[in-house]
Amino acid sequence: MCSYNAVNGVPSCANSFLQNTIVREQWGFEGYIVSDCGAISNIERTHHYTSNPADTVAAALLGGCDLDCGIYYPLYTMEAINKKTITEADIDVTLTRLFKYRMRLGMFDLVNATSYHTLSPADVNTTSSQEVALKLAQESIVLLQNNKSILPLDPKLSVAVLGPNSDATTTMQGNYHGIAPFLDSPIDGIKSIASNVTTAKGCDVKCTDDSGFKEAVTAAQTAQAVIVVIGLDQSQESEGHDRNDISLPGKQEDFLMAIRDATKSPMIVVVITGGPVDISWAKANADAVLWCGYPGQSGGKAIAQVIYGEVNPSGRLPYTIYPQDYVNQISFFDMGMRSKPGRTYKFYTGDAVYPFGCGLSYTTFNFSWSEWEKLPPKFQVLNELSTVQYQVTVTNTGSKSGAVAVLAYMTYSDVNAPMKQLFGFQRVELNPKENATLFFDAGVETFTTVDKGGNKVLKPGRYTVLIEDLSHTITLV
């Protein structure tokens, strides 16, 4: 899907370099591209890149967008053909892409010729699909902090489950979701495992009213462990609803402070949110921190399973969590990745609250280079390179079974290059003392760039591969 924004001054849905040169020619994408809804009309009405609907259709179609989620293609394509800004041959190209995939789906086959025709609503909410939903929630939860191995908790401990998202249900679906067959809240999940549970919200997600803090504090004082579920919901972030800051909403941080001041019992903070929020206070004061995203219909059960050790966490944080002042350091309207202090793990030079890719486990892993032919330190020409394969042996050195997502990064010596860039990742599940060998291919495209003519060219310089705590450097000359 091509988006609403422009790239280098050209609206995404009319950007031939982006959609045709990069996506199709270089990346080998063979599918079709559809616009975000209204993005074609935005080429004219918002970006003012074109001055009339017919020219807008031509810019988008020739730019590589095959399908318009809007009115411009159905209303103005014939006008563009009559103006000779596009031809029937141009339309044939996009129709071929669109109908190829309808054919692959069996939409023109006889009813009995494909299994797709036998599917019905009864095939949606199945036992196997519910198991997948639970597994996805389990694997996506990220253990950010676990001081003194406070987790997993003993289910025999009395526990207070508090906070604005402690009873979250629909919130856990994010947006653009169907009708879930059920919704397990964090309270539901914890009550299914722990034997002694008290609850109190304290406040809602907006948390402008602190009158409920007292009840929550009382619950915390009577418990042997405290689980506080905080974060965002669709009142704070959604399509067309941008946040002005990245701090916790309202008095949520005050709520955390009130609970911490009231008890010395272990405090576990669970963060349910889509976009990042500054959780510096939780990092400095909580015993454990879990990031859960919006974990879906089985989210509450998955959260409880991780907290009580029925599931060993293996998620990795999918973005950088910045401190609140980040929004004052770089303008929301500045899309430059390198604008100081930089955006994402590739360019951010500040101190992250939690960095991209972090995530803990209840077991430990060791990483070592496998037996492999030693790579030459220098490659003279591009065709010498082909593919460099890195073999890494991962060993579970702890006492619990667990999975680990192994991340492979590349750094490049050019001053304008990203500080590091992810080029591969693999997930492996291991029993205690078990090991496995993983293979990471750094293909030729890793060491090339595209010149102004759209040609791939070698980037001479020093490259360092970083896989967990391992590194290897090669030089291209």
Q: Keywords for this structure?
A:
6-stranded mixed β-sheet, 22% strand, 14 helices, 26% helix, alpha/beta, 5-stranded mixed β-sheet, 3 domains, Immunoglobulin-like, Rossmann fold, 18 strands, 477 residues
Question: Can you walk me through this structure?
Answer:
The protein is built from 14 helices and 18 strands. The chain is of the alpha/beta class and 477 residues long. The chain has three domains: 6-104, no CATH class; 127-347, Glycoside hydrolase family 3 C-terminal domain (Rossmann fold, 3-Layer(aba) Sandwich); 365-476, Immunoglobulins (Immunoglobulin-like), CATH 2.60.40.10. It has a six-stranded mixed sheet, sandwiched between helices. Strand 4, helix 7 (186-191) and strand 5 form a beta-alpha-beta unit. Helix 3 crosses helix 4 and helix 8 (213-221) runs parallel beside helix 9 (252-262). The mean pLDDT is 92.
Query: How many helical elements?
Result: 14
Sheet having the most strands: 6 strands, mixed
Task: State the end-to-end CA separation.
Answer: 38 Å
**CATH top level assignment of the largest domain:** Alpha Beta
